[in-house]
Amino acid sequence: MVRLTRTKVTKKPATTKAVSKKQSAKTAKVNGVKAAAAKQELEKKTVKEEKPIPAAKAPSRLRLSAIQRKHKHSPTLLPLPSINKVDCEVFAFGTGDMCELGLGPEKASTVKRPRLSPYLSKEIVDIAVGGQHGLVLDSQGRVWSWGGNDLGALGRDTSGHEVLKDMDADESDDEDDPKLNPAESIPALVDTDQRFVKIEASDSLSLALTAEGDVWAWGSFRNSQGTMGFSDKVKVQNRPVKIEELSNIAAIAAGRDHVLALTQWGTVHTWGDSENFRLGWKSNRSTLSPRELGLKNIVYVGAGEFHSFAIDTDGKVLAWGLNQYGQCGILGQSDNAAVDGPTYVDALDGKDIVAVTGGEHHSLALSKDGTVYSFGRYDYHQIGFTTKDLPEGTVRDDKGNPRFLPVPSPLSLGGEDDDEKLPKMRFIACGAHHSLIIDVDGRVWTWGFSSSFQTGHAEEDDVETPRKIMNTAIKPIDVKMAGGGGQFSVVAGVRKEE
């Protein structure tokens, strides 16, 4: 009997070549998956590395500000600010008990006529004068400061340099020529690397504009109750900081404790002390943050200590703020103590006004043809008229004494015996109770309260009408700009060719 057996059939092993091919395909598939995953991971990393910088860290100019968003489709009326193309020398005069003159600690605190600053170069392109401090801007865009620094207006540290009086010294020694704080009486650079093209000064606040239209500021605001502060979070700002709420600013103007900022689109922002409606709002609520005023088509802003001005595209002048001496140039209000919002100055219509500014209680306006219009308080001859030459519209007291002139009136030299007529002017500036104007030939004319020699005429009596400053230091200078403080003045110009 034949036993049948089941033969186990085994598969023929694959060749080495076939196995290698299969393994390669499998490996390739696995590697392909890994490669795809690796590629995807790499792409994720690449996207992660290339994602935009977080908004909080992005440069400010890459993001539209609130002002830019609002005016995204609006036509611009004004160019961004640019630096002056002049290289000036700086002169100071008046009384500098608070180091306002910037002539150094060894100099007399009273300078009766313009004196050249020995500490500033001949490359100054802009000046700004506050109540008790001064600023200049050099051709490199750097700001230099001097004067009182109690509320940080100088933008740098001046502590530790105070001059103490020797109690054992002879009482008569240096009594008339006290030594001043060298850190405040000598101009020094403001503590910042930022470069600027324009500067402005309030009483205890300083401001500067960049070529991009950004506003930087330092110091603090004050009001009748004391120190208001710099912002809602900062009492005194000792170093320059950028005001983030503002952009595309073409010009700024500052009163004693309020500021106006004019945008490229002709709108105006104001902030600071709102007493007497100087901010232009119907409410008297002060603010330390810029807030837009309801004005359009504005091409110029100016300020007095407690009042404000603007000029629109039609050449019309608007004014608001304190007006008890007619310094706004506005009549017919039920209460002349203050103008509670932007109001047209009818007396300046058709006069082609290009600039308006003010002191504490008086104002000046400059027309395109070089005529200067003056209005406001008369007590210290701030408005530049003699008693016999006061224009029609002058307000007098019960005894017939002149009090103030509320109607803007053209300035003259006054009198019948003057050999020289008042020439055409190109620049106007006001101190607290005195005025400075510059004619087309670069000569400075001043008048008003002069007990601190702030008019530069070496006399303490008030100067009634515009008088040309004549002294050796300033005679060869073509003066380009001027500014007045509480008891001092600063002018700057270029030396005339021989």
Automatic annotation (TrEMBL):
RCC repeats, residue ranges: 88-140, 141-212, 213-265, 266-314, 315-369, 370-441, 442-495
Among the GO molecular function terms of this UniProt record, one is: guanyl-nucleotide exchange factor activity
**PROSITE patterns, per database record:** RCC1_1 (PS00625), RCC1_2 (PS00626), RCC1_3 (PS50012)
Chain spans, region Disordered: 1-31
Tell me which residues make up the RCC1-like domain: 89-491
Provide the alphabetized UniProt keywords.
Guanine-nucleotide releasing factor, Repeat
Cellular component terms (Gene Ontology): cytoplasm
| Source domain of life | Eukaryota
Keyword Repeat assigned: yes
Q: Which InterPro entries match?
A: Ran_GTPase-activating, RCC1-like_dom, RCC1/BLIP-II, Reg_chr_condens
Give start-end positions of Basic residues composition bias. 1-11
Record GO biological process: regulation of mitotic cell cycle; regulation of mitotic spindle assembly
Query: What is this protein's name?
Result: YALI0A13299p
Q: Which organism is it from?
A: Yarrowia lipolytica (strain CLIB 122 / E 150)
